[in-house]
Amino acid sequence: MAGFDKRVYSYEEAMDGIESGMTVVAGGFGLCGIPENLISEIKRRGVKDLTVVSNNCGVDGFGLGVLLEDRQISRILASYVGENALFERQMLDGEIDVQLTPQGTLAEKLRAGGAGIPAFYTATGYGTPIGEGKEVREFNGRKFILEEGLIGDFAIVKGWKADHYGNVIYRKTARNFNPMAATAGRITVVEVEEIVEPGELDPDQIHTPGIYVDRLIQGTFEKRIEKRTVRES
């Protein structure tokens, strides 16, 4: 129900039901807009053999990177290995199954899954290793490969503001993969910086309607910067 109060008051309650072997869809891009406290709760629980769907896998010691430390992830679908040396080593050593996916394709796989679309055709990846073994069709003289939509057992999402009913607003570039991830979980858990009273959010500004959200928690965030650069004087 869109009007149901989605708030929970502990991270233990927020991630109740997660088990080893599940698929977790995680929002965020680099360290921007990542559900850092929900990730920490997954680490605390010690669940193993997870399949993770995310743009990347955090950095060493933060974000999804903390789940690599105890080898909690067995498979990841991502578009970017990034700045994570442990992720790179586990991938090269064959300790983790990595399915690299073009960034736009990954976003569409989540959007399609959340919309109940089982598969779609895209030209991206045709004629490359990405397209090997996938169905090919021709449209208007161009070749396209078939990609399947994605749904996770859990989706973990970071928002900026939400009301009690789980209507969520993201802030600027922290929106990134979060709206698609929010639709692509059998159970979607959102952590936000502020929860406001119903009616305080402008309906035209809501990015994720509460119908997609199962649990909502307010947290505090470290918000690390992946790379800090300044212009030379």
Automatic annotation (TrEMBL):
Keyword presence, Transferase: yes
Phylogenetic classification of the source organism: Bacteria, Pseudomonadati, Pseudomonadota, Gammaproteobacteria, Oceanospirillales
Pfam families, per the entry: CoA_trans
Organism: Halomonas cupida
Key words, A-Z: Transferase
Ribonucleoprotein found in the keyword field: no
Gene: dhcA
Name of the protein this chain belongs to: 3-oxoacid CoA-transferase subunit A
GO molecular function, a single term: CoA-transferase activity
